Amino acid sequence: MNFIIIIFVTCYHLKNILAPHLTVLVIHNTAARMRLAATEKAEAEKILQIKRAEGDAESKYLAGLGIARQRQAIVDGLRDSVLAFSENVPGTSSKDVMDMVLVTQYFDTMKDIGASSKSSAVFIPHGPGAVKDIAAQIRDGQLQGRMV
User: Fold this and answer.
1) Which of 49, 59, 93, 131 is deepest in the core (most CB within 10 A)?
2) Where does the source fall among the domains of life (predicted)?
């Protein structure tokens, strides 16, 4: 009977001695795992940000290619129109054709402004001399833009 009491007392003392140390060990392991989890989470967020930035850059690059192709198609179409008109109408220069294209675009713009129910009134001089002035202003603006 004394032997059982000694074992019981010894186990009780061991439990009271080891329990705080085990608790500290569990807390320490938990803290280490939490630090590791926080590091892994931060690394995952970093990778996501990098991938988003790469995707955004690729999207902008492709959009730029699309705009460049669109502008090239416009230039090619204008060039073909100018050449075809110059060949079919003797005595016309490419400047005459470009003036006609500008006038056509001007009238298309006026039509679009008038057709929209949400547009405000826009007053633009539209007499024959005014169209010539507008064409000259557009050309001058383009020339000045090239010089900058």
Assistant:
1) 131
2) Eukaryota
